[in-house]
Amino acid sequence: MIIPLIESLLKLDYPQDMLEVILVDDNSTDKTWDIINDYALKFSNIKAIRTNAKYQKFKGKKAGLQSAIDIAQNDIIALTDADASLPANWLKSHNSLFNHDTGLVIGYIRGINIKGISRYKRIFSSGLFASFCALGNPFSCSGGNLAIRKEALHEVGGYSSIKDFPSGDDKQMLNLIKKSNYRIVYNSQVKVIERERRLSKDQLYQQAIRHYGKASISSLSYQIGFIIIILFYLALPIISFFNPFILLYFWLGNIIFYSSSLLYHKEKLYLNDIFLAIIYPYYMLYFSLMGTFKEAKWKK
């Protein structure tokens, strides 16, 4: 349901005369269009649009993204998802990180009531996104919490440049901006809340493949690093048989990195995180390989 997102947009701490809200219905089969159209009729700075035949060759949600970008009037375009809720300072926080050479600001998404490996995955991945950004070599981000300079979007051809890929719109756009002269910055100060959706086991499986199966759209250096990591994890059980301390070092390294991400994103450490630090790398490895050799079904 998109209503919580719209209500959070209406509560943003931002001058209303400088705020343009574009809600896109990408051929939904529920009441989404009726809902967003009602809000557009009530509020002058909200626009409700539907994707049309012009964008029929755009795969995944890129049709909806490009539809909004084509009519957006302001210099900075912030993007989120229908199942998100935004903090009041979302736009102000992102805007504070834009200067003359900033093209993209990426951020953290926190799920409501997510537990176990899903929570571990999100925090660990966010730590990676922040770390690689700090090193000047960003490699991925979360599409539900980012802001892009419109000029940078036009410079890289917008989502028209990547319309043939069904998923990975966030990572692909990051790669395009990365090749330009613009900087990419990580913002840990605002948390976009993703509301929990009831997904079947197959939907969760397909979602994991989409999230991890992006090696083919990554840079050559990332792909080489990915292969090295695969070989390391495959060899680790054999090496540990001869030197058990290797597993201890491996576990401690994961815990230290994960704990650093927890502190950076102001999250808590739970007891089962200690166990997940051992199995998560193999969970990530499995779905990364599945996503590399198998195309995931797009969510409906």
In short:
It contains eleven helices and seven strands.
Verbal overview:
The protein has 300 residues and is α/β, with parallel strands linked by helices. 49% of the residues lie in helices and 14% in strands. Helix 5 crosses helix 10 (245-264), helix 8 (201-212) crosses helix 11 (272-293) and helix 10 crosses helix 11. The longest helix has 23 residues, at 220-242. 33% of the residues are buried. The model has no long low-confidence stretch (mean pLDDT 86).
Question: Characteristics of this structure?
Answer:
300 residues; alpha/beta; 5-stranded mixed β-sheet; two-stranded parallel ribbon; 11 helices; globular
Strand portion: 5-15%
Report strand order across the widest sheet. 3-6-5-7-4
Radius of gyration: 20 Å
The number of E-state strands comes to 7
Quick one: biggest sheet? 5 strands, mixed
> What structural class results from the helix and strand content?
alpha/beta
Please tell me the overall pLDDT: 86
Range of helix content: 40-55%
User: Topology as H/E string?
Assistant: HEHEHEEHEHEHHEHHHH
pLDDT < 50 runs, ≥5 residues:
none
